[in-house]
Amino acid sequence: MEGRPKVAIIDPNTLAAMGLKQLLQNVMPIMTVDTFGSFAELTASQMDSYAHYFAAMNIVLENKFFFTERRRKTIVLTLSLDNASQLSEFHSLCINLPEPQLIRALLALEQHAHSNGKNLPPMPRVLQQKILSDREIEVMSLIVQGYINKEIADRLNIGLATVITHRKNIMDKLGMKSVSALTIYAVMHGYVDINTI
Fold it and tell me: What is the dihedral of CA 174, 177, 178, 180, to 10 degrees?
């Protein structure tokens, strides 16, 4: 699609690249995400058409000149949270985390670079519309903060069956199947502060 920012994932681990692509498309639905198994595959494409490069550590080390020149656009994929094992001049993302923590790290990176949508094209109008009712937004907010159905019912003074119905309606309206996807939606739309999840 024309006009969409493009992101490149360069990682020889196909499964890791596919999983990260799915998460990135959830976090940033307006992005086009391309995956490459090697730096040679990236060079065969329009390599400077990408807004960001998510690159495996070994790819960055083997092609340091290219990525150092694009340091502000490069996120190094690491397997360790240890700062000593990360490249200090680059942003890093540890991909060896449970899904909720990885999503939180991606959202933190996105908010750091693009808070309030800076440097991004406007969201398509269909994504800007208010889809959920006020009560559904309240329920969604509590779900992504980790509350279980009974706790949500108690906090909002509604019945357990009502919470379950709201939960089902929220997932159906947004076309989501997991709490992780719901968390991304809630943070990206400003319904929940990333620090509360």
Answer: -50
User: Taking a C-beta distance cutoff of 8 angstroms, is the pair 11, 58 a contact?
Assistant: no
Furthest C-alpha separation in the chain: 60
User: pLDDT, tens digit, for every residue of 64-117?
Assistant: 999 999 998 999 998 877 766 677 888 888 888 888 788 888 887 777 665 544
Structural contact between residues 56 and 38, judged by C-beta atoms closer than 8 angstroms: no
Q: What angle do CA 114, 115, 119 make, to 5 degrees?
A: 35
- The label of the residue with tokens 């939960």 reads 167
Label each residue of 46-102 as H, E or C. Answer: CHHHCCEEEEEHHHHHHCHHHHHHCHHHEEEEECCCCHHHCCCCCEEEECCCCHHHH
Distance CA 15, CA 43 (A): 21
